[in-house]
Amino acid sequence: MADAAMPRRLVLLRHAKSSWAEPGLDDSERPLAPRGERAAGVIAAQLVKRKLQPDRVLCSTAKRTRETWNRIRPVLVNLPEEVLEPELYLAEPATIFGRIQKTPPRVNTLLVIGHNPGLQRLAVSLVERIDADLAETIRAKFPTAAMLALVFEAADWSGLSGAPLEVLAYDTPRTLGEVD
Question: pTM for this one?
Answer without folding.
Answer: 0.95
